[in-house]
Amino acid sequence: MGMFAAPNTTAIMNAVPAEHRGASSGMRVTLQNTGTALSMTLYFSILIFGLTQHLPAAMYQGLMNAGVPSAVALQVANLKLNTATGERFFPSELSMENKHGHRRVF
What we know:
The protein is an all-alpha fold. The chain has helices spanning 2-14, 21-65, 70-77, 81-85, 96-105. The longest helix has 45 residues, at 21-65. 0% of the residues are buried.
């Protein structure tokens, strides 16, 4: 990214009048951060979708290859997400101090 970002940032800042470079830099960084967050969201959505489609079969095969009995391998490979991570939604598990901070931020 360094070979791409530095020359482009320089080109953008050189194209803006000196008195507007502060605002332009702020807008550029805001758009960059927004794009980064959106691209990570898209990437992990695709990754999670792919895992939910292919992980159970791969896990079952891996457990079978490791010598785990078939019934146990099938049970583990087909665990539901809430069984593996808990019954409650993760933010409700946070301590009260963290909840207070999250409410202020969001």
